[in-house]
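hi!! sorry for the late reply, been swamped w classes. u asked for the two structures so here they r. pasted raw, havent cleaned anything up. first the sequence of the first protein and right below it the tokens
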Amino acid sequence: MSISRCGAAVLTAGVGLICLAPLTAAADGIEVADADAPVVGMAYAPGSGDLWIAGARADDGIIVNAETGDEVTFGGDPVSVQALAWSSSRLYIADIGDPDASRDHVVVFRLASTQTGRQTYNAFDFQYADGARDAKAFMISARGNLYVVTDGDDPGIYYAAAQPSRTAMNTLTRVADAPDGVTDGVFLKDGSTMALRTKVGIEYIDAFTWEPLVTDTIVGAPDAESIAVGANDEIYVGGNPEIRTTEVPSSDTTTTIEPSASPSPSASASPSASASQSPAADDAEDEEEDSGSSPTRTGTYVAIGLAALLSVAAGVVTWFIRN
């Protein structure tokens, strides 16, 4: 299937004006608050319309709902979360980063739910058939097959069959060469077109033939961007610190990203304050405990001082009585 038949739709205004908690709406996209930037992975949940992001705290087991600001947490002790994917009403978290190629296996977590709070999960272990690799892209096809795209000198697209084992090691097998500098990827709604955010831009590839279809060359964007696809094949791309929205092109094109205006000090304070309401709740509690302890210590010092004065006064009285 060619890209021109993918049925890409122009992003509606409603999506661009999402009301966010730790994220704030920008004029032409979604601006990520400092607490969650950079975004290393994104996934769109078709049923609910939620955009999930893995940000700076993903390795601590924290995933954020971009629409509501709610947080989902999980254990599992991830090492280097690099991507998210959504499949069959479940959110997958890919702990696949390995810049030194030193991990004996990587892990993909599948959350039991994306309800706010701590959630249980399933964990799937994977090894590369040809040795350890660093990767930043993880995708699930319409058939449920798993794909990882590696980085480095010899980047490749690796495949694992649907329904991986939860009790045995699963194997990732190389099926094709990958473009240079892939930082994230996602399947379009047709189930056969893979969109990869690469060093060049967004490259669309036929996942049956592995032939390139069309390229959106991106100029002026930050490095290491993430990508997700919405309900109508609208593309979310960015995360460092802004998430932009675009559509799938029907032919090769070039997109130039204009630098964002530097925010004023007062403007930058607002997103930070908003971000601290939910993600930094524990920090806020710590600050309250610290500020509350100072008056207590001051009271102790006053009491000691009064005791010393009383002691001196008692000594004076005793001296007068004896003399």
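now the second protein. again sequence first, tokens right under
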Amino acid sequence: MKNVLVFKTSVSGKSEVKKLKPLLNGLVNQNDYWNFDLEDCDNILRVETQSLSAPSISSLLQKSGFSCEELD
């Protein structure tokens, strides 16, 4: 069963998503899925995953220079 993890981020443009794409693709498994909703005021990142934890995703974005906070 997949978990849906939702994060508030500081990613604000398509160029930033393009920068993160290879990193996120390398982190997720083949059947996992991620996307950004940059039209939302919180610049939402949604990740559908069976194996990843929220801290691993937050850490990846933070190491890349972005804020990333899991939403409940």
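hope this helps!! also noticed smth abt the second:
Residues 3-70 form a domain with the Alpha-Beta Plaits fold (CATH 3.30.70).
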